[in-house]
Amino acid sequence: MKIYTIYRKQQLAISTLQAWQFLSSPHYLNQITPDFFNIEITSPVPDEIYAGLLISYRMKAVFGIPMSWLSEICHCDQPRRFVYQQRVGPFKFWSHEVSLKACEGGIEVEDIVFYAMPFGWLGEGLHAILIGDKLQRIFDTRYQYLQAKWGIKT
Q1: How confident is the model at residue 5 (pLDDT cuts 50, 70, 90)?
Q2: What phi and psi, each to the nearest 5 degrees, are found at residue 67?
Q3: What sections of 1-154 are H helices per DSSP?
């Protein structure tokens, strides 16, 4: 099984608390993802996330086909770090860590994603021709949105 990674780091001119409130809330996912990645939250979500929280979604990420996703907040060290992992969804494995730390002029946001495709060689082929590019576009859009809204000007 091949493990893929996505890594992004950027500096934003906002407080740790502002970044935490925005990035830890699934309600902003459609703002920071491309239009093809339409997300509908299908479970209640409290104002504050916590370790053990399960959140269910319905999304249309590939060819507009609806799919379900259930994620669990596995680690939550407010306001510095949280990790969510897929429990049910399209990947064999998915883990996304978001960490925040103070830096000059604001905060540094770090995204680290590990994932694996299902279906053996078929999944690897789908990754090569479609899924890998879509995931890069999702995280590129996230980066660009955050940069435009709060990016530290150099």
Answers
A1: very high
A2: -140, 155
A3: 16-23, 120-126, 132-150
Q: At 29, give phi and psi (nearest 5°).
A: -60, -40
Instruction: Please tell me the distance from the alpha carbon of residue 43 to that of residue 116, in angstroms, as a whole number.
Output: 25
Whether the pTM exceeds 0.85: the reply is yes
Spatial neighbors of 133 by CB under 8 A, at least 6 apart, are none
Q: Is the dihedral of CA 10, 15, 20, 23 positive or negative?
A: negative
Strand partners, 110: 9, 99
Q: Which two tokens stand for residue 40?
A: 């509908």
**Considering only CA atoms, which of 69, 95, 76, 60 is closest in space to residue 25?**
76
Tell me how far apart the alpha carbons of residues 30 and 59 are, in angstroms, rounded to a whole number: 10
